Amino acid sequence: MLYEELMLDSSLLLRFKIFRYLNQSSMQIFPVNQLSEEMDLNYQQTVIELNEIDQELKDIHPEHESIMMRAGKINLDNLSATVDEYRYHLLKQSVPFQYILYFLNEETPTIKAFCDEYFVSRSTISRKINRLKRYLKTFNLRFTYTEAGMSGDERLIRIALFDILWLGTRGLDYPLEVNQQLVDQSVEAFQSYFPLSRTYFGVRELRLFAGISLLRLNKQHFTKYDSRYNFLMKDNPYYDFASLGKIIDVPLTTRQLKGETSFIYFLSHYAPFYTIRDDSSLKQTIHDFDTRPNPVNAFVNEFRRFGKKTLFPDKPEILDDPLIVGNLLNITFAYYVFRQPFPNIMSMVFKPSQNQSYGEHVLEQNIMNFMQTAGENPDYQFISSIRVLLGKSFKHLLMPSFNQFPYAQNLRLGIAMEHNALFVRELYRFLDDLRFVQAEPYDASLKEDYDLIISSSMLLRSEKSKLPIYVLDHNYKEKDLIPLYTKLREIYGQKNRANAKS
């Protein structure tokens, strides 16, 4: 389930979908009738929702000019907020988002006080928070209501809270009521361990995570040291276990300090963060995982040997790329530690693909076969409960490097335009640059074999109405080839779906 579906009730979600749809349109003036058809609403309901959106845009930007025009038209040039701004505005009206910020920011949060402050009943909270509650249950996390909050593995709680707040704010706002100086000092002390600290958004992500951790510490919610960290962190001078105690203003026992500090270092390894090949933290990661015998490094090396022979026989060096190695180590380490599903932003942003390409299917099946075999090895028992999740994570990481073309069928195109080089020269040059198409002059005897016929006229369709025809006017410009490319990619994806080829 996507983030907005988890966080927004039906009325807020509808307005968000309408706004996002309008925001993605390339039109300047949009008919209300068309919008109502596209969104499967009646005309009156569409107008009501548009007027609500118009007022909310005024609330976000007081200088906003109305999007509503006469004659049932919408002026899209007047959409004065970004999708992120509008989403955040709606979230501030959302009970799940309000509840999370409340129990984080309030010193002694109770369900009764929340109901009084936000004028909602307990039954309303339970109903509106239900989808998010079911999502969190997959990680063995639960909302608590006597003392408003969350229960479960504190590490997973903080990761879940970060994902929810980051996807809601996207760096637009910092909604936590926490000592900003302590936040900045914490980030400064540990940012060198995090590759994302070198990026624009990464610093903001670290500040948000630091703020969540400080607020949880203030309420005496601590993370514990995990012995599964030992091979990486124990007696390793790279990891400083003293600095945190000098920064935060919460008294910690030696055990609590060790647990909190180790969690910071775990966070630097729990996701495939590496995107910069010469990053010092990447080099340190590869070194540290290789220094002492451990099942994570052994498993990744076993997978790399398999991958060089089976997945990348023509380019085995792909699996020696430090970026690939470092990210495989991080992915595996997180599953080695948790051994269960854990919150991740990807699952809240991308829907699982129902129509994967045949090449993607081949890659996934090969990886899953490896996971099945490796899981039978006593040294890799840690993957037994999470091998499917681990396999899919490996697939997503390797997919951009995987050559799908041997498993794909190119599109066959017929060019039915006047035989004049001035008309077709630019088109052929454009198509020649596309690796997945084969273009040739249209041959009527082969019309059933073409995936698409590009023509300057609809004459062919009048002769045979079911022909797949794309009309391109004689005076087409370079920008007119962009919709054609989109259409070709769509047909190519349909032709090469795994279920279409099975």
TrEMBL record:
InterPro entries, sorted: BglG_antiterminators, Mga_HTH, WH-like_DNA-bd_sf
Protein name from the UniProt record: Mga helix-turn-helix domain-containing protein
Residue ranges of coiled coil: none
Membrane-traversing stretches: none
Keywords tagged on the record: Transcription, Transcription regulation
Domain Mga helix-turn-helix span(s) in chain numbering: 83-162
